[in-house]
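Sanity check

After download, print the first record. It should look like this:
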Amino acid sequence: MWESEVILVVAASFLLAGLVKGLVGLGLPTIALALLATQMDLKAAIPLVLVPSLATNIWQALAGGALKALVMRLWVFLLAACAAIWFGAGLLAGLDASLPSGLFGALLCVYALVSLTGLQMPPPGAKEPWLSPPLGLVNGAITGLTGSFIFPSVLYLQALGLSRDHLVQAMGLTFLISTLALAVALRGHALLPTEAGLLSAVALLPALGGMALGQVFRKRLPEARFRKLFFVALTALGAYLAWAAFLAPLY
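Expected structure tokens:
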């Protein structure tokens, strides 16, 4: 973990992920994990996103003025997700890392393509109380298995008809709670060694530096165009991870 090559990969990954976060307001844990997964075992990469994810989502979860209302609305979804995260992490502990890595890559492709095409989940309406538990379970299992918080939580939260500020806060709340639950689950399944936790704390520095740089560039670059390029790049990165896990071994 403390070899110079590993530290360089971690620093570069979080610097770029922070830059994206500063530019478009999302993607730090996802892009960091995707970049790390190209260079190391996914089981080793997932713990490294914990501290930067916690730090960057605390303020997002608290800002927005609707924390109590969002907790009251989302608690069933979040509780189900937390329970399933433990289950997913247990699967991760018992599997070869190539399968979760390939699944993570496929999820990145689906999420990015959905974002590029503008597809959305239909508003749940009166079905919301019934949809929250199963969607929370699915999201939690995927989070525990791949370290990714985005699917299907982002689509579900977007379908709830929240205002922009409250949607951002709801995502921050979901990612914050999921990160805490993931840390507990990884520790419980012996997937969070102390040195990984320390390196994750160190990774916070380039992540924050990248965010600050991204916010500077944000004033000069067209956000819509960069967001489109971001999702195109995310599709390519996800496709590479899926190919490396599922197809490359066949050749």
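If your output differs, re-run the checksum step. Summary of this record's structure: The chain has a mean pLDDT of 88.
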